[in-house]
Design brief:
Elements (H helix, E strand, L loop, with lengths): L1 E3 L2 E4 L2 E4 L6 E4 L5 E3 L7 H12 L7 E3 L5 H4 L2 H7 L4 E4 L1 H7 L2 H17 L1 H4 L13 E2 L5 E5 L2 E7 L8 E5 L4 E5 L4 E2 L5 E2 L6 H12 L5 E4 L3 E4 H28 L4 H14 L8 H18 L1
Parallel strand pairs: 5-6, 6-7, 7-8, 12-15
Antiparallel strand pairs: 1-16, 2-3, 3-4, 4-5, 9-10, 10-11, 11-12, 13-14, 15-16
Length: about 300
Amino acid sequence: MIIKSEGRLADRIYAIGAPELPGYLVVGDRPMLFDAGITFMGPLYLKALQERLGDPGLLRLHFLTHSHFDHAGASPYLKRRLPGLQIGASAAAAATFGKAGAVALIRSLSRPLEEKYAFLSGGEEVEFTGLTVDMILEEDQVFALGEGLTCRILATPGHTRDSLSFYLPEVKALVTGEAAGVFDRDYRIHPEFTSSYRDYLNSLEKMAHLDLDIIMMSHFFTLTGGDARDYMQKSLTATVLFRERIEKLLRENGGDRQAVVEKIYQEDFAGTQAILQDARPYLINLEAKVRVIAEDR
């Protein structure tokens, strides 16, 4: 089944915030939150933590799938409001958060949405001010969450070099970020190999070997049952086909990357209303995907 990422998803697992930008909360002896999207969502996450935990300060673990603005944007806000919160991310993500250029990009992508949705913040300061990672997460680390639940860290680069996924084996649940692609409104899978096609494929193959009943996607959707079990193979197929499409367009356009970007943009974004993303981040990601394939030919 494909369901919206909102409310209770399974026993002790909740999507908080909004389906567009879900944080995934596991409630146990050691509550854990995966991701916290764009900056303006900070107060909504905090309110949801109050509702689910009683005391938001009970949340001590906040793990990030990667360093993009729509996955870590509200993390500094939560850190300011919850002083005991420990941020966990990959070493590469920690390094990214320390770069002035990366912080400036996160702020520039976030600012228009902060202004558009200012009413959600109630005047609170939500700006991304940089982020210090407290815990460097590595492949196959396991964290006990209590009540029989554990979280295993998976290195899943390809979307970004710093991408991680998180597997809860006792409930066969996986938080993927964009390491396995994203759906559009028509449930078409859009691959997201913005840093490395080969790493992305390897990460998909790693996740395809997991025993899965639940996949918590980065935006809008959670998959359960057969849809979860079949997804990784479908994503692998979609990834190979998208590479072939880019290669064909590069040949037809004499290697002109911008012409390929424009063609795909017109066909997949401007010509439909299926893409669940704003134009600027969509184009940034698309340009990266075309570059990755052009340089890998």
